[in-house]
Amino acid sequence: MLSVARTALRRGFATNAAVEGFNGAVGNTPLIYLKHLSEKTGSRIFGKAEFQNPGGSVKDRAALGVVRDAEDQGLLKPGGTVVEGTAGNTGIGLAHVCRARGYKCVIFMPNSQSQEKIDLLRMLGAEVHAVPAVAYENPANYNHQARDHAKALPNAIWTNQFDNTANAYAHYISTGPEIWEQTRGELDGFICSTGTGGTLAGTGKYLREKSNGKTQIWLADPPGSVLTSYITSGGKLTERSGSSITEGIGQGRVTDNLATFVNDISGAFTVPDEKSIQMVYELLDTEGLYLGASSALNVVAAVELALRLGKGSNVVTILCDGAYRYQSRLFSKKWLESKGLESSIPDHLKKYAVL
Ligand code: PMP
C-alpha cells in the first residue's frame, strides 16, 4: 500500500497532508454511503464523490494523468499548448491543469453538449471549438479535429484521452487504491459507465488485482452505446444506434483504455434514460445529492448489481459530477417534455423541476 501511496504522491494526486495548488487537490474524494438506497436493497451501496474534485468531476484525475505523462516523456514543454477532444469534463480538468502549470488549452467538443460546460471552459481561459456532433468514423469528428489541430500547431500536444492509457493509469494509481482502502477490501462489486473507459479500466484493474479476482467489475451503458452488446456477445461489435440524455458516457468502439481491461469485465447491462432521470431526482430528494445524469445512471446500475450479487453485498460506483453543469436541461420542465421524460418523474419529485 505504501508504495502505491508514494507513487500517487509523486504523480501529483492528493494525500491527507497539505497539498499544492489545483493538482495537489485532485483525488482523495470521500466514499459516500447511500443510506436510503442501501436500506431499500438490503445491501451496502457507496458512491465515490468525484464531484468533489477541484475541477468538479472524475475527469480531473485523467486530465492530470495525461498532462504529467506528457511532461515526463518530454512531449510537453514550458509554454506549450494542450489540445483535446472532449464532451466537456476532461476539457474542464485540462483547462484547470493548464492554468496551474502555465500551458495554453484548446478544446474541441460536440455542439450537442450543455451550454454550461462551454461557458465554463471559456471562463477558464480555454479556446473552445464547438463543432457539429458527428460519428467517430467521420473525419470532422471533434476528436480527429483536435488531433489535426495539435499537429499543425508548434509546441502543442494532443492528449488523446480515449486511446492514451495514461488516462486509465491515473485511476489505477489513485481511484482504485482509494476505494480499496475506504472499503477495507470488503468489496463485492464495482460498476460504472464509460466514455473513454479510463475510470472503469484503471479502477477495475486495481480492484481485481487486489482482491485476487473476488471483486466483480461490471460495466453500465446508456442507450445507444455498443459496449453492453460487445461484452455480453463475447466480443462482437455492432453499429451504434439510438441516443441518451446522459452526457460524457456511451461509446461506439473499444478504446485503447477500455481494451486494457475489457476481457476481465464480469458483465454489462444498459440503463434506460427513464430510470437515470428518475434517479437524478431521487438522489436529490432522499440522499441530498445534486448530481448529473451519468452519476444517476451509475447509481441505478449499482442498485441493480447489488440485487444480482445478493443481500448484504458491498457495491461501489462513481458519482462523476454535479448537476450544476446540466441544470438548464435536467431541471427544466420544457426540456424534460421535449425528451418525453416528464412522465418518468414521480409526482412527489416533480417539485424539483423548477426551471
Ligand atoms: N461521466 C461524465 C459526466 C463524464 O464527463 C465522463 C467522461 N467523459 C464519464 C462519466 C466517463 O468517464 P471515463 O471517460 O473515464 O470513462
UniProtKB/TrEMBL annotation:
Q: Which GO terms describe its molecular function?
A: cysteine synthase activity
One Pfam family cited in the UniProt record for this chain = PALP
What does the record give as its pathway? Amino-acid biosynthesis; L-cysteine biosynthesis; L-cysteine from L-serine: step 2/2
Does the record's keyword annotation contain 4Fe-4S? no
Output the Gene Ontology cellular-component terms: mitochondrion
Domain Tryptophan synthase beta chain-like PALP intervals: 25-321
What cofactor requirement does the entry state?
Answer: pyridoxal 5'-phosphate
Keyword line: Amino-acid biosynthesis, Cysteine biosynthesis, Mitochondrion, Pyridoxal phosphate, Transferase, Transit peptide
> Where does this polypeptide localize?
Mitochondrion
Reactions this protein catalyses? O-succinyl-L-serine + hydrogen sulfide = L-cysteine + succinate; O-acetyl-L-serine + hydrogen sulfide = L-cysteine + acetate
InterPro entries given in the database record = Cys_Synth/Cystath_Beta-Synth, P-phosphate_BS, TrpB-like_PALP, TrpB-like_PALP_sf
Q: Which GO terms describe its biological process?
A: cysteine biosynthetic process from serine
Q: What is its EC number?
A: 2.5.1.47
**PROSITE patterns per record:** CYS_SYNTHASE (PS00901)
Q: Which family does it belong to?
A: Belongs to the cysteine synthase/cystathionine beta-synthase family.
Q: What does this chain do?
A: Catalyzes the conversion of O-succinyl-L-serine into cysteine, the last step in the cysteine biosynthesis pathway. Can also use O-acetyl-L-serine.
Official protein name in the record: Cysteine synthase 1
